[in-house]
Description:
This protein is α/β, with parallel strands linked by helices. The chain contains eleven helices and nine strands. The protein is 45% helix and 19% strand.
Amino acid sequence: MKFLKAWLAVAIAALFAGAAHAQDYPKRPVTMIVPFAAGGTSDVIARVVAEEMSKSLGQPIVIENVAGAGGSTALTRAARADADGYTIAIGNAGTNAATYTIYPKLPFTPQSFVPIAIVAKTFGIIALRKDFPAKDLQDFIAYAKKNPGKVNLGHAGVGSSNYLICKSFVQAAGIDVQLVGYRGAAPALTDAIGGQIDGVCDSAASVSQAIDDKLVKGLVVGSTVRLSTLPNLPTSAEAGLPDFEAQGWNGLFAPKGTPPAVIAKLNAAAKAAVESEAVKKRFHDLSTVGPDASEHASEVLGQLVTRDVEKYRKLLEEKK
């Protein structure tokens, strides 16, 4: 009985301590880990959202780029961080779902994280160096089939969402191309602009400006509708490849054990951020959209991760 009373006292004290912690959270800056180099899709979205979230939280959110291993280096660091709400991470379908198939011996699992909120929905694009000898998608597929293994497409590293765009594209097109991994989307795009690689699999958020400036030429967007910022870029169905689907997401995660009240504060700040006019305008310029009204709850992100772990297991195990 004495042991039970002591245990209950400790549990109640811990509960009140957690509530008190959440009540005055945050008292100092929050670090948001981005699993890729600066300048790529996740980094751009993280900075846009973090700036607005900091207004709600009353503390700055500091971006920390931790590139490597398709995002698993960063997620390892995030999983091992103190579960106090002062370290969070932005992830996507690559870093938080497909990675478990690609890297089966990771030091973390989906249960190592608590979902906070979906913050963006993205659209995958295939873009080529501006002097590539193909005028449209069908021309490119024909060229790739005549030259198996000779065309190369860059992405943000094995396990990234851009890698999944590549895999979805080459499987839908039935072509054999070399996939070249980088430490982020930005360096891959830089090489495509410079002609060091033939093209990139990228999100509209990071490649649309380069297409608009004619530094690279857009081939196709893996979406059911054309993007308002790139009205001349055909959808996969319009281009004759309806099986190519590349609509992704970005979400925020905290280490397992982060108090629910802290998660609730972060979720509310994320919701306020993506509903702000500043973020909506910036997202429009990036050919990105925020979550729907029904998608703000942290549980929705958790369900999305569960769905995509299985979805990408099937994709990646097929035709390995």
